[in-house]
Design goal:
It holds the Pfam family Flavin_Reduct. By secondary structure, the protein is mainly β. It contains four helices and twelve strands; from the N terminus they run βββββαβααββββαββ. The chain has one domain: Electron Transport, Fmn-binding Protein, Chain A (Pnp Oxidase, Chain A), CATH 2.30.110. Strand 2 (17-22) and strand 3 form a beta hairpin.
Length: 190
């Protein structure tokens, strides 16, 4: 039997993504978000949702761009810190010792030490209530060579990314392969 639960942000898992932007003075900043995902395949687009109160919010609007750096489990503490501290009051790159790199495709920085990077040009904003959804066209993807397969595609297990469980606030490593997309369900097709 199912039990009703009060509506909330309990969908899981959610990504642990670090959104990079430059502030008005050109200082690199990064914040961790969990509300985001791929939202369109043509143009290939990625969305992140931010509150107006965040320091990153206005930076994305002003620069028309952002990056998403996907951390590996090695950097769980740094990624968590990026969501706890405000770039308005501190330089998160200096505090963590991580390296901001200027994207050559968009006006935003990314985190050098993180294995996968998405470079996004802002194409639309949608006011949702407490959050604004930023929709960015992915104009570039960068990945560490050591996580690529023989076809040049990033492998999730080698990237060692992790996810967030909003219901209990756990970070979880991504586990075993349990099936194949567009293949496992074919047993139900006659």
């Amino acid at each position: 039997m199912k039990k009703s639960i009060k509506p909330g942000t309990l969908a899981f898992p959610t990504p642990v993504w670090c959104v990079g932007s430059y502030d008005g003075d050109g200082k690199p900043n990064v914040m961790t978000i969990a509300w985001g995902g791929i939202c369109c395949s043509a143009p290939v687009s990625l969305t992140v949702s931010l509150r107006k109160a965040t320091y990153t919010y206005q930076s994305i609007l002003d620069r028309g761009a952002y990056t998403v750096s996907i951390p590996s489990v090695k950097y769980v503490a740094e990624a968590d810190y990026f969501g706890l501290a405000s770039g308005k009051n501190t330089d998160k790159f200096v505090v963590t010792g991580l390296t901001p790199v200027r994207s050559d495709l968009v006006d935003a920085p990314y985190v050098e030490e993180f294995p996968v990077i998405f470079e996004c040009k802002l194409i639309q904003t949608v006011e949702l209530g407490l959050h604004t959804q930023f929709i960015g066209e992915i104009v570039g993807i960068k990945a560490d060579e050591n996580i690529l397969d023989e076809k040049g595609m990033p492998l999730m297990d080698k990237a060692q990314s992790f996810v967030f469980a909003p219901s209990n606030k756990d970070y979880r490593a991504i586990g075993d392969v349990v099936g194949q997309g567009f293949k496992s369900g074919k047993k139900f097709i006659s």
